[in-house]
Design goal:
alpha+beta; four-stranded antiparallel beta sheet; 2 helices; disordered N terminus
């Protein structure tokens, strides 16, 4: 069988364009294959740009007790309340985050222990709860705070308050470890009061974790 060459110039031009498109597609496929192979050999170079950094706030873990230095600051008495700010300082070399209520146990001189309630608002520090509680990211050396306060006057028919708390056993949110610190409020010249409300329930409590800039200081 013999093939007859097309004598029409337009037919020859169409055939030439067809061959050019085929060749172009072949080159594109070759480039794509080479790029895919390069990605396979160096995946971090091809996919790493969209991955969050390991040190970003979103990927940091909750602060553990072992990472924190816990103390009490900004103490004083105001509007029939006495208290201060629990200060949580990131004493480690890694980023961590805090959110929610710390667990605080008030301990008297005789060893009686009471878990402080979760405050919704307090005149001390002019703090009130807003949902959801903020997430505070702490770089090494940064601090987060929580208000700790109690009524410092007897209520109802009570003529005096129970013996004050002389120590506070503090755990950061989400961690079972704890640190015991003095409950002495230098600015109020007293320990943290253990005064109760008219119905006999303890008034001492803590706020959620927040930043110092959100509190009077």
């Amino acid at each position: 069988m013999r093939f007859q060459m097309a004598s029409d110039p337009r037919a020859r031009s169409a055939a030439s364009h067809g061959l050019t498109r085929v060749a172009a597609r072949g080159r594109t496929a070759t480039v794509s294959a080479l790029a895919a192979a390069a990605c396979g050999l160096a995946m971090t170079a091809c996919g790493g740009q969209n991955s969050p950094a390991s040190s970003s706030p979103a990927s940091s873990g909750a602060c553990a007790t072992s990472q924190l230095k816990i103390s009490i600051s900004n103490t004083g008495a105001l509007a029939r309340q006495a208290g201060g700010y629990l200060k949580f300082t990131n004493d480690s070399g890694t980023l961590c985050r805090m959110s929610g209520w710390p667990v605080v146990i008030g301990v008297t001189a005789t060893g009686s222990a009471t878990r402080l309630r979760r405050l919704q608002l307090t005149m001390f520090g002019a703090w009130h709860y807003t949902a959801p509680p903020p997430v505070v990211t702490l770089r090494p050396g940064d601090s987060a705070y929580a208000v700790v306060a109690a009524d410092d006057h007897p209520a109802g028919v009570n003529t005096r308050c129970p013996a004050p708390y002389v120590r506070l056993r503090v755990s950061p949110p989400g961690d079972s470890g704890n640190v015991t610190i003095s409950a002495w409020l230098a600015g109020a010249s007293s320990y943290l009061p253990a005064c109760t409300s008219a119905d006999g329930s303890p008034t001492a409590g803590t706020s959620t974790i927040t930043t110092l800039s959100s509190l009077p200081h």
